[in-house]
Amino acid sequence: MTLFRMLALAALVLANSAEAADMAFFVKNLRKEGVAVELFSRDRETVWPGNDKVFLVDPGSQKSVPISCNQGERICYGAWVDGNDKISAGVGPDNDQPCDTCCFICVEHTTETIDLVP
C-alpha cells in the first residue's frame, strides 16, 4: 500500500469517528406500570435498541440508556405501557405521533432526561 493510500485511509477513519458520539438517556418511569421505550433517529433509519427489542423500565424505577449516535442527529423517544401500546408518550411505539418536547440533539458525552409521568 502506498503512503498516499495509507494517509487517505487514515483520514477517512478519523473523519468517520469524529461524527460518532456517545450519549445517554436517563429514563425515569414515574408510572405504576412498566413501560417500553425506543429511541428513533429523525435523520436516518435507526432505532435503539433495534432488532425488534425495547428498553423496559419497571414501575417507579429509572434506567440509563447509553447509545452511539451521529453528532447533531435528532433523536426522539417513544414510550408506552408494557403490554398496552394504546397508552403512549413521545412519538409513540410506531414513531408516528407529533411531539414538540420529546426530541433531543445528539451531543458527545451528554445525558438527556426523560420523565414518564402518569
Question: How would you describe the overall organization of this protein?
Answer:
Residues 1-20 form the signal peptide. This is Mlr4654 protein. Keywords: Signal. The chain is mainly β and 118 residues long. The protein has one domain (20-116): Immunoglobulin-like, CATH 2.60.40. Helices cover 14% and strands 47% of the residues. It has one helix and nine strands. Strands 2, 3, 4, 6, 7 and 8 form a six-stranded antiparallel beta sheet that branches. A three-stranded mixed beta sheet has the order 5-1-9. The longest helix has 17 residues, at 3-19. It is globular and about 40 Å long. The relative contact order is 0.27.
